[in-house]
C-alpha cells in the first residue's frame, strides 16, 4: 500500500473509563480517527495482528504501575505485527513486516527506534511473533535454570506464558511437569497436548493438597504467574535448593481494582532451611531474549516439538470482547486479533 492509497481515517479502540471491578465491553470505545502522518525518524505502519494480554487489565485501572497506564479517552496500545506503509527517512521499506508497540489501532505512527524488523523466514507464521514464549523461556532457562530430571510447577498453565512453559520445561529436560488452571476442561488439554504430566485445578479444593498429590516428591522449580495461594503452596512442597521464578500476580491483577500489589505470607524459615531461591523475572530486562527465543521457537515449530496455542479473532471490533473473555479465563494460550 502506498501513502497515496492510505485512507483518510482508521479505527482505534480507546479506554472509556478506568476499570474498577469486572471488565466489560462498556469500558471501551471504538472510534474513528484521522490516519496519522509520519515525520522525520518515524514510520507509518498498517497493523495486521495484535495481542491482548492480562497485563492490559491492570493498565486500565489508573493504579501506579512500573509501566505507563492507559488513559480514558486515549487509544490503548500493545504488541503488534504490521506492514510498513511509509518511511520518510528510508530506514525501512514499504511492505516490510515489523513488530511495533501500538496495537489497538489499524494504522500507527512509530519512531524508527521502537520498530523491529521481522525476518519472514524466522517463524512459520507472523502470528507466532506475538507469543509470550520469551517470558517462559527466559524464566525457566535463565532465572530458574531448569535441570534434567527437575519437577516443575507452572501456575496459570493455560495462559499465554504457561501454555508454552510446559513444553519449554520438557525441552530443557524436566522430569515431571505440573500446571495449575481454572477448569478441568483446560486441565485435560494441558495434559493431552501441552506437555503437562498432571494438573491442579483452582476451585477444586485447597491448592496444597492437590499439589502434593501431583508432585509427591516435591518441586524443584516454580514458574509463577499467579501468586497468592498457589505461591504459598509451592513453597510448602519445595525441595531443597528449589528455584522460584515469579513473572506475574494474576490472582490480584484480574480481580477487584486490578492492583499489581500481591502480598503473600511466605515462611522465611522454610526458605532458609530449604535454601529456596525466589527471583522476580521480566523479559524486558533481557533485550537479547526475543531473538534467542525466536530461534528456539522457530526450530520447535518446524520440527513439531513445539506448538503455539492461541485464539485468533478477526476485526479490531473484536478486541474489547477478547480482552474481557481473557480476564474471565475463557481462552487457552495467547489471544490475538487479526485486523
Give structural attributes.
globular; 7-stranded mixed β-sheet; 15 strands; alpha/beta; 6-stranded parallel β-sheet; 339 residues
Structure explained in plain terms:
The chain has helices spanning 55-59, 133-143, 162-171, 184-193, 207-214, 229-236, 250-253, 268-273, 289-303, 319-327; strands at residues 9-15, 28-34, 42-52, 80-86, 97-100, 107-111, 116-117, 151-154, 176-181, 198-201, 219-224, 238-246, 277-280, 310-314, 334-338. With 339 residues, the protein is an alpha/beta fold. Strands 3, 4, 5, 6, 7, 14 and 15 form a 7-stranded mixed sheet that branches. Helix 2 packs across helix 3. It is globular. The mean pLDDT is 92.
Return residue spans where pLDDT drops below 50 for at least 5 consecutive residues.
none
Task: Give me the count of strands.
Answer: 15
- The secondary structure category is alpha/beta
Rg measurement, Å:
21 Å
* Amino-to-carboxy terminus distance: 15 Å
Arithmetic mean of pLDDT: 92
Give the percentage of residues in beta strands: 25-35%
Number of helices: 10
User: Helical proportion?
Assistant: 25-40%
Give the overall form: globular
Give the biggest sheet.
7 strands, mixed
Helix/strand order, N-terminal first:
EEEHEEEEHEHEHEHEHEHHEHEHE
Quick summary:
By secondary structure, the chain is an alpha/beta fold.
SSE layout and pairing:
Elements: E1 9-15, E2 28-34, E3 42-52, H1 55-59, E4 80-86, E5 97-100, E6 107-111, E7 116-117, H2 133-143, E8 151-154, H3 162-171, E9 176-181, H4 184-193, E10 198-201, H5 207-214, E11 219-224, H6 229-236, E12 238-246, H7 250-253, H8 268-273, E13 277-280, H9 289-303, E14 310-314, H10 319-327, E15 334-338
